[in-house]
C-alpha cells in the first residue's frame, strides 16, 4: 500500500511539472503588410529547379511567385503547398516559392503561437516581401574591459547582445578605477541597436621635481617626454617610476596616485661612484708609469755619468767629448729625479682619491622599487 502511495505521489509531481511547462507564455509573431517588389527579377532569375533540372512549378504546371520573408529569429518551420525545394534560407531572410493560387503560409516555432502570413493575390514570376518579427528588440552593448549590467543585474564582460521585449531598460558599465557609466535605453519591437559605452578613468596627477636635467623618465615601463615643470595625468592606483641618467645611479620607486590629487616627487640622483673610481684609477696608473719612467731616466743618467768619469780620467784626445757627455747626464739626472718626485706625488694624491671613491661606493645606496636603499659593494 505504501508503494502505491509513493507511485501516486510521483505521478502527481510529474503532472504538476507538465502543467507548469504547458503554462509558459507563448510569444506572438507580428508582421508588416506583404508588398510586391516592382521591377525585381529575383523570382525569374533564381527560380529553383526539380531533380530533372526543370523550373519548379505548382501541381497545375503554373510558374511560381517568390515571397521573401525577412525575420529576426531562427529555427522555425514554414508550411506551404510547395516542397522543401522551394524554400531557401539566408541570414535574416527566407525565400519561399509559392503557387499563384497559394492562400496560406504558416510559420511554426517552438514556444511561439503558429503564425499565418497575411497574403495578397500572387502573380507568377513576381517577387513579394513581408517582414515578420517576434516582437523582440536586439541590443548589442560594447564596453571594453568593463562589466555590463542590465537593470542592476550583472550580465557579462566587455560585450553582450540582448534580446529584449519592447520597453525601457537601464544599462550600466562598471570597471575598476573608472567612473561608472549608466545609459537609459528605450527599445521598440524588432529594433536593432548598438550601444557603445566609453568609460572615463579616475585620474590624479604626478609632478617630478628633479635636481638634474636631461633625465630619462619611465612610468610603468613607458618612457615619458617633456615632464619639466609639468604635471602628468595618471589613472589612480599604484605606479612604478624609473629614472636613468648617464654617470648617475639608476633610481626606481613605487608611488600611488589619488583621484583629483597632485602627487609630487622630489628626487636628487646620486653620482655613480664607479665613474670617479675609474677616473682616479686611470690617473693613478698614469702617474705611476710616469714615475717609473722618469725615475728610470734619472737612474740611467746617474749610472751612465758615473761610468763616464772613469773613462774621462784615462782619456787623451776625446776627453773634451767625454766631459760634455758627463755634463749632459749630470744636468739630466736632477731633472729626471725631480720629475719622478712630482709624478710620485701625483700618484699618491690620485691613489688616495681612488681609495676614497671606493669607500664611498661601498656605502652608497642603490634605490629599490619602494624608494628605499641597499648597500652597494663592488670589488676591483
Estimated structural class: alpha+beta
Mean pLDDT: 82
Count of individual domains: 4
Major β-sheet annotation: 6 strands, mixed
Count of helical segments? Answer: 4
Radius of gyration: 49 Å
- Please write the string of helix (H) and strand (E) elements: HEEHEEEEEEEEEEEEEEEEEEEHHEE
Q: Total strand count, please?
A: 23
Which word captures the global form? elongated
Q: Strand percentage, roughly?
A: 35-45%
Distance between the termini: 100 Å
Poorly predicted regions are 1-24, 367-371, 373-380
Residues in helices, as a percent range: 25-40%
What secondary-structure arrangement, pairings included, does this model have?
Layout: H1 2-22, E1 30-31, E2 35-36, H2 42-45, E3 65-71, E4 77-79, E5 87-90, E6 93-98, E7 105-108, E8 115-117, E9 127-133, E10 136-150, E11 153-165, E12 167-174, E13 181-187, E14 192-196, E15 203-210, E16 216-219, E17 222-224, E18 231-235, E19 237-244, E20 251-257, E21 262-267, H3 273-313, H4 319-363, E22 365-367, E23 373-375
Parallel strand pairs: 3-9, 10-14, 15-21
Antiparallel strand pairs: 1-9, 2-9, 3-6, 4-7, 5-6, 7-8, 10-11, 10-12, 12-13, 15-18, 16-17, 16-19, 19-20, 22-23
Helix pairs in contact: 3-4
